[in-house]
Design a protein that fits this description.
By secondary structure, the chain is α+β, with helices and mostly antiparallel strands. The chain folds into two domains: about 1-195, no CATH class; about 210-360, 2-Layer Sandwich (Alpha-Beta Plaits). The protein is built from 14 helices and six strands. It has helices at about 1-5, 10-15, 20-45, 55-80, 85-105, 110-115, 120-130, 130-150, 160-200, 210-230, 240-250, 250-270, 290-305, 335-360; strands spanning about 230-240, 275-280, 280-290, 310, 315, 320-330. A hairpin with a 2-residue loop joins strand 4 (about 310) and strand 5 (about 315). Helix 5 (about 85-105) runs antiparallel to helix 7. The radius of gyration is 35 Å and the shape is elongated.
């Protein structure tokens, strides 16, 4: 059935990322199609029989015909504009006109039943247009019969007026509660989406960016450098001596070390730079528009900061670090080349340190 409804919905709505708008558009089309079908059937029936004797036959035919045309034009307008509020208000105006004319032409005992049709429209508008439109039309629907009764056009009793106002108040409360609940659910869903997006983009332990986000940031940095003829530096960092802390003091100590190192990296880098944990005891930095000398100075400060002792449950723990850098565009033109070069240099430094340590030990 959706394929039929979707033919009456603008492509701009169908292509939206959020399914809520598509569902809302389908509900709007269904409501308008139901009313179009009802008035069309009534218009056809009125050609053969006057089923409302109180209304002249020609006027009955004209009214249903015009109403059918108005609903059809509203659907076509929605198909070409996708404007919910405009089409919802046109729908309400058509309904209002039909019910009002019917009430004016019907005998007094049947007027109350006719006006009860008014209360349906605000619910429709709350679904397909807006909360404000629903309340505005509810006010119009409430005031109209009361005003006509006051000027003597209609003849309601006091009880009928009181019941009508009470019914309208009940409709208002229902619409307001529905709006409040929808806003509450929308806010809750928005928070959940933000939390999911944050969780997907950040390392759960340290709170800094994870590998997937890091790779996205590196691609963006490369594109920026291409467009602006600038340079950026990728830095790989691997902690030395971290495994021994994990083995000797437990994983809680290791987690504490990782969180502290992540905080230190954030403090020493600029806001526009990127800091990420790639996994285990490996971190990465993207230094945007950073000169070679500035990069070297930063590496020296980072090494000094990382090697400062970290206190955990009374114990002073220390780790070292090995760096590997790759500069765009000198060391690579894409993510794969840059990460390979930075990783290669980092492990070359690790091996040279290990070899030097072995030589000293001998």
């Amino acid at each position: 059935m959706y394929w039929l409804l979707d033919r009456l919905i603008p492509a701009s709505i169908l292509e939206l990322e959020y399914p809520e708008e598509r569902s809302r558009a389908r509900v709007a089309v269904v409501i308008m199609l139901i009313n179009l079908s009802g008035t069309f059937i009534a218009a056809l029936a009125s050609l053969f029989v006057n089923f409302v004797p109180a209304i002249p036959h020609w006027l009955l035919q004209t009214g249903f015909g015009v109403s059918t045309l108005a609903y059809a034009l509203t659907i076509l307008l929605f198909r070409h504009t996708g404007h919910f509020a405009l089409c919802g208000n046109l729908f309400a105006a058509n309904w209002y006109t039909m019910v009002l004319l019917s009430a004016l032409l019907m005998p007094d005992p049947e007027i109350s039943a006719i006006f009860l049709h008014f209360t349906v429209v605000p619910f429709y508008l709350a679904l397909i247009a807006s909360y404000r439109s629903a309340i505005a039309w509810l006010f119009i629907f409430l005031v109209t019969p009361v005003a006509l009764n006051e000027v003597g056009v209609l003849n309601f009793g006091v009880t009928a007026v009181a019941n009508w106002i009470g019914n309208g108040f009940g409709v208002f409360v229902a619409i307001y509660l529905g709006h409040y609940y929808r806003e509450l659910m929308s806010e809750r869903l928005s928070r959940q989406c933000e939390l999911l997006e944050y969780t997907a983009a950040h390392d759960p332990l340290t709170g800094i960016e994870n590998r997937a986000t890091f790779e996205t940031r590196l691609d963006e940095s490369i594109e920026f450098c291409k467009m602006n003829q600038t340079q950026s530096t990728l830095v790989y960092i691997d902690l030395d001596g971290f495994k021994a802390i994990n083995d000797n003091h437990g994983h809680q100590a290791g987690d504490h070390i990782l969180k502290e190192i992540a905080d230190r990296l954030k403090r020493l880098t600029r806001e526009k730079d990127s800091v990420a944990r790639l996994g285990g005891d490996e971190f990465a930095l993207i230094l945007h528009e950073c000169a070679s000398q500035s990069t070297d100075d930063l590496m020296a400060r980072l090494a000094k900061e990382i090697e400062k002792p970290i206190t955990f449950r009374g114990a002073r723990l220390s780790v070292g670090c090995s760096f590997g850098t790759a500069r765009y565009p000198n060391d690579g033109a894409d993510l794969t080349q840059l990460t390979h070069r930075a990783d290669q240099r980092m492990y070359e430094l690790k091996r040279s340190r290990a070899a030097a340590t072995t030589t000293v030990a001998r």
